[in-house]
Amino acid sequence: MSTRTPRIQLILGSTREGRAGEQVAQWFAHLAAERDDVEIELVDLREFPLPFFDSPVSPKRRIGDDPRIQAWAAKVAEADGYIFVTPEYNYGYPAVLKNALDHLYYQWNDKPVGFVGYGGIAGGIRAVQQLRQVVVELGLAQVRTQVLIPKVFTAFGDDGQPVDAMHATTASALLDEVADWARMLQVKRNADASVDELATASA
Ligand SMILES: Cc1cc2nc3c(=O)[nH]c(=O)nc-3n(C[C@H](O)[C@H](O)[C@H](O)COP(=O)(O)O)c2cc1C
Question: From the CA of 120, how far away is ligand 1's center (Å)?
Fold first, then answer.
């Protein structure tokens, strides 16, 4: 079965008014759009307002009927991989991002994820470390390289580019890894689907 150019969603994890994350995500999205080995889509959680997760059953069994959850599931299912753009709030990542993760399960499975963190002095590293612990349970395959942007308030020039040129180099390396894994895991998901089809046909 053939594979397609990996569709990578850049999920912006801050919905706060006046968020710095918008600049970070716009910069990264433009950088990724220059490549021809991925199709990048910026997914803004503001456009997917979700109820607070309170389902009586795990999303491993069934996701909620609420049309907002269904719309979120349909969007996440479209992608072959993800990059989470996360600020650091009190040494962690935002609750709105955890809520968006918890609502789904199978939609995340067997796809790669990379991280772009930003914040104060630590550049979002504690938020990214926490996310690394969480994504394993969602069946996401995390890549090693991560972009960390300290002092985000002064990290970008008037041209929208990071003052520190190293961030673009790291971002390219991160995209290389996510693109590679997205291609490989597409093969795996296609193979799994073929085995399921054969099993159903012979049942
Ligand atoms: C509630 C809150 C807690 C924060 N805690 C931290 C923190 O623990 N470490 C850090 O480096 N920055 C912290 N910051 C600074 C944020 O990382 C910074 O304001 C960043 O711009 C937030 O992302 P956003 O503007 O896209 O929402 C905190 C900001 C807020 C609003």
Answer: 7
Which residue's CA is the nearest one to ligand 1's atom 20? 119
Q: Quick count: other Cβ atoms within 10 Å of Cβ 138?
A: 18
Residues with beta carbon inside 6 Å of ligand 1? 14, 16, 19-21, 87-91, 119-122, 152
The predicted model scores a pTM of: 0.96
Using one digit for the tens of pLDDT, what is the confidence trace for 91-132? 999 999 999 999 999 999 999 999 999 999 999 999 999 999
Read off the pLDDT of residues 45-90 as tens digits, 9 standing for 90 and up: 999 999 999 999 999 999 999 999 999 999 999 999 999 999 999 9
Atom of ligand 1 nearest to the CA of 94: 27
**Domain presence at residue 2:** no
Distance CA 188, CA 194 (A): 10
Residue 150 sits in a domain of what CATH number? 3.40.50.360
